[in-house]
């Protein structure tokens, strides 16, 4: 059973309008690399030049923020779900 990645609306133009994309188990960083292989250009929207998840992008594994887990080293197992949530600016 693959890992599901929930793609936010602003990034769906890069995934041919797919809301859910499947990747293999491994780590969050590996999942981002696999997304980049499937959909070139998506990683630069998620990762900054230092290789860190961008400040305005929140990534959750099974509803837990990876910043409170192991960031990109957070392990993924079959059936997990990753949600990519762009932060909304404003006040």
From the structure above, extract its key features.
91 residues, alpha+beta, Ubiquitin-like (UB roll), 7 strands
Q: Can you tell me about this structure?
A:
The protein has helices at 28-38, 43-46, and strands at 3-6, 20-23, 26-27, 57-61, 64-65, 75-76, 81-86. The chain starts with a strand and ends in a 5-residue tail after the last strand. Helices cover 16% and strands 27% of the residues. The chain has one domain (3-86): Ubiquitin-like (UB roll) (Roll), CATH 3.10.20. The strands form 2 sheets. Strands 2-1-7-4-5 form a 5-stranded mixed beta sheet, with helices on one face. The protein is of the alpha+beta class.
CATH homology group: Beta-grasp domain
Tally of helical segments: 2
Remind me, CATH topology?
Ubiquitin-like (UB roll)
How many domains make up the 3D coordinates?
Answer: 1
SSE order and pairing:
Blueprint: E1 3-6, E2 20-23, E3 26-27, H1 28-38, H2 43-46, E4 57-61, E5 64-65, E6 75-76, E7 81-86
Parallel strand pairs: 1-7
Antiparallel strand pairs: 1-2, 3-6, 4-5, 4-7
What's a concise summary of this model?
The chain has 91 residues and is an alpha+beta fold.
């Amino acid at each position: 059973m693959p890992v599901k990645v929930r793609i936010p609306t602003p990034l769906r133009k890069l995934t041919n309008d797919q809301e859910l994309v499947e990747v293999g188990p491994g780590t969050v960083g590996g999942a981002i690399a696999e997304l980049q292989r499937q959909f070139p250009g998506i990683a630069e929207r998620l990762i900054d030049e230092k290789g860190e998840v961008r400040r305005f992008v929140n990534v959750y594994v099974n509803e837990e923020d990876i910043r409170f887990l192991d960031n990109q080293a957070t392990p993924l197992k079959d059936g997990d779900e990753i949600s990519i949530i762009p932060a909304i600016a404003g006040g």
